[in-house]
Write a structure and sequence with these properties.
It is a single chain. This protein is α/β, with parallel strands linked by helices. Helix content is 24%, strand content 18%. The chain has a domain at 69-157: 2-Layer Sandwich (Nucleotidyltransferase, domain 5), CATH 3.30.420.270. A hairpin with a 5-residue loop joins strand 1 and strand 2. Helix 2 runs parallel beside helix 3 (133-145). The protein starts with 10 loop residues before the first strand and ends in a 16-residue tail after the last strand.
Length: 173
């Protein structure tokens, strides 16, 4: 084989049995795709969104109550603690102590039992906004009869309507 004749795999054979590899020019740089494929990222985000939408309602402790809405609620962070004692009053008059439905007649004794070994004798009441006022007053009385030191009525913040509150009255008499 002569120097000009190509042997196997593009090598060129020289006279003394030496071989030189021929360099082939590759054009692989032009095939590189520099675009970011966002489809997998969107798929992951949609899955996470669905997971959070399903899990979020499950995170609510206790029974679901439509609380009364007020303009200036007082923050009660202790009501969200795991060991907080919460009494819920539904709009139809059903009473729940924690997650368990109870008779209003037995509520005083159940609250006494739970407060027996506690230092913090605080109970929170979650009353539905449409519950009868008389039923709420009766439950408050029953809870106070159990020896509660502090009683918290839980409410929600009223959404701002975009209007400023009316100015306070001015002037004297």
């Amino acid at each position: 084989m002569s120097k000009d004749e190509a042997g196997p795999a593009g090598s060129v054979e020289l006279s003394a049995g030496e071989q030189i590899m021929a360099l082939a020019k590759r054009d692989e740089g032009s095939k590189v795709n520099s675009d970011i494929n966002v489809t997998p990222m969107v798929d992951v985000m949609l899955v996470l969104l669905i997971i959070f939408m399903v899990i979020t309602p499950m995170l609510q402790k206790g029974v679901s109550v439509d609380l009364a809405k007020v303009n200036n609620p007082e923050q009660m962070p202790d009501a969200d603690k795991e060991d907080a004692l919460v009494v819920a009053i539904m709009r139809d008059g059903k009473v729940f102590f924690g997650n368990d439905r109870t008779d209003p007649d037995q509520l005083t004794q159940k609250v006494k039992d739970r407060l027996a070994n506690r230092v913090d004798k605080r109970v929170f009441i979650r009353a539905d906004a449409r519950a009868k006022f008389g039923a709420v007053v009766q439950i408050v009385d029953d809870v106070r009869a159990a020896g509660v030191d502090q009683l918290g009525l839980l409410t929600d913040q009223r959404k701002a309507t975009g209007q400023a509150p009316p100015p306070p009255p001015t002037g004297g008499q």
